[in-house]
């Protein structure tokens, strides 16, 4: 073992991002694209949150969960994107040791919370359609946040105990647990085992639970006698189902990349779809798929709509 490898992990003071470094001439274009995506994500999700707060028609558990999902989208993109525009204009794209682990903590927290929150929303739809008399739902957002925090604390603490070897280069544009494990020269078997266990608990289990919920929901919808009733019931679920498919599809593809071999550009593209584009599309998907939300959102987005609402 070299002297560098024998040093404690705290000797690593910064990490170097390799993401987007293969295209130096496109840095300005990347900056513009990510800035537009970030501002669009903030605007769309803030409109959802504001409309849910001030519109009495949206004071239901479903939109309560939706507003929390929008808040989570804002937190997620604010954790991942703001570091990138600065690095686009730096020859050496770096992040401090503390900054890397802070980003990892919030990234894992948002991901875990999002998984559980989507399950809560699936359960909400199931109760509304299959057992309306048992409404409101039993699961709370506090449970979702607690699951995300516990998951994040475990992963971050375990990662912080690793001995990191050189080079301190991360093949991405942000910090994440699997990427940090690749830099370790100490035993990562415990970290990998915890990753698999958490994947089963917070990833696969929610995915299966959501799938079972929608099988029961579809079965209940098909038993509704009127076509209008079936269409109305289905319209309340299609937005959430779309978000679930996009979220879990891109997340699983991204985190399983080590099993398929890794290409930097492909890995970056998949993660951009997961942590950037997905959260930008969520407000669009929900606003287009829910008639109840269209009215308040139009008023907020229209000229003078927001000020008129506040004035009333």
From TrEMBL:
InterPro entries: GPCR_Rhodpsn, GPCR_Rhodpsn_7TM, Olfact_rcpt, Olfactory_GPCR. This is Olfactory receptor 5V1-like. It comes from Vulpes vulpes (Red fox). Keywords: Cell membrane, G-protein coupled receptor, Membrane, Olfaction, Receptor, Sensory transduction, Transducer, Transmembrane, Transmembrane helix. It is a multi-pass membrane protein. It is found in: Cell membrane. Residues 44-286 form the G-protein coupled receptors family 1 profile domain. Putative odorant or sperm cell receptor. PANTHER family: OLFACTORY RECEPTOR. The keyword Cell membrane applies. The chain crosses the membrane at residues 29-51, 63-84, 104-123, 135-154, 200-221, 233-251, 266-289. It holds the Pfam family 7tm_4. The keyword Membrane applies.
């Amino acid at each position: 073992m070299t002297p560098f490898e024998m040093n404690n992990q705290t000797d690593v003071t910064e990490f170097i991002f390799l993401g987007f470094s293969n295209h130096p001439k496109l840095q300005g274009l990347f900056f513009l694209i990510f800035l537009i995506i970030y501002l669009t994500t903030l605007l769309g999700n803030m409109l959802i949150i504001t409309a849910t707060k001030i519109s009495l028609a949206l004071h239901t558990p479903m939109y309560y969960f939706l507003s929390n999902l929008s808040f989570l989208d804002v937190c997620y993109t604010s954790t991942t994107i703001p570091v990138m525009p600065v690095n686009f204009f730096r020859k050496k794209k770096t992040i401090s040791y503390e900054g890397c682990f802070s980003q990892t903590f919030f990234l894992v927290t948002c991901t875990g919370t999002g998984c559980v929150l989507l399950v809560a929303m699936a359960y909400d739809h199931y109760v509304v359609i299959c057992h309306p008399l048992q409404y409101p739902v039993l699961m709370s957002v506090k449970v979702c946040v607690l699951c995300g925090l516990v998951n994040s604390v475990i992963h971050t603490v375990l990662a912080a105990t690793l001995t990191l070897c050189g080079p301190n280069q991360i093949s991405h544009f942000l910090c994440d647990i699997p990427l940090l494990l690749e830099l370790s020269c100490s035993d990562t078997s415990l970290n990998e085992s915890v990753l698999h266990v958490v994947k089963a608990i917070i990833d696969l289990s929610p995915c299966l639970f959501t799938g079972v919920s929608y099988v029961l929901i579809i079965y209940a919808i098909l038993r509704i006698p009127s076509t209008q009733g079936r269409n109305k019931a289905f319209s309340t679920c299609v937005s959430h189902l779309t978000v679930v498919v996009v979220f879990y599809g891109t997340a699983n593809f991204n985190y399983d990349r080590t099993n398929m071999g890794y290409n930097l550009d492909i890995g970056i593209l998949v993660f951009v779809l997961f942590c950037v584009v997905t959260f930008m599309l969520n407000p669009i998907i929900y606003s287009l798929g829910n008639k109840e939300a269209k009215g308040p959102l139009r008023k907020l987005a229209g000229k003078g709509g927001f000020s008129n609402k506040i004035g009333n």
